[in-house]
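Next up, a chain.

===
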Amino acid sequence: MSLHAEKIAQCDPIWSALREQAEELARSEAALASLTHATILQHDRLEDALSYLLASKIGGDGIAPMLAREVFEEVMKADPQIGAAVRADLSAVFERDPACHSYIQAFLFFKGFHSLQCHRIAHWLFANGRKPLAYLIQSRVSELFAVDIHPGARIGRGIFMDHATGVVIGETAVVDDDVSMLHGVTLGGTGKEEGDRHPKIRRGVLLGAGAKVLGNIEIGEYSRVASGSVVLKPVPAHCTVAGVPAKEIGCAGCDRPSQAMDQILRDSGFDI
């Protein structure tokens, strides 16, 4: 590692840890040495490594991997907040997923993380007048990862999408910081409405597997939506809702449901 790269790593604990884990993986598993060097060790910054990794996945159908990489790098340089969100998302996966044992595991292999970072790029492009390219990235992510997030959706940082398969998020949806959601979650509309028509998910919410939240309604901060529920009405803060249609069945169970990932409704007989 160059002196410049070493100085950057010292000021960036997530990147430093990721590089250390990549070096260990390259030593311990020879079959993955080439992968770790290409995706992590040859780069000086997390943003550059992520651009390379995502472009290698997204590129090849409609946009060449090299061109995709240039676009991703361009966007991350234009908006440093994307890099900050990437680090918060990596931390969220590592801290909340008991199946995740290192940053490099999430970085290389978790499609929920990959889908979310591709969306961050697509959202910037969408907001800056490059909508066709944003739609292309959305389409590729949907084809590759079975995750469909409209590039217009606004998503905060520290987001954890566990498994992620089947997640659908509509154009005018808003997801605040520190939200966790499992596979099969839909943040959708209720029909053919135009304008602001999708849910607003506030900070710290936990959305269980298969939860459907429909319409321009708000899920209050630090609330829980039980697995398989269909939510058609606003949910107060610090509450748990369950059922079809969903009804309030009690408090959220803890102060930080999205971080605790506690999916047991102990007083109701339901699991979320």
The mean pLDDT is 94.
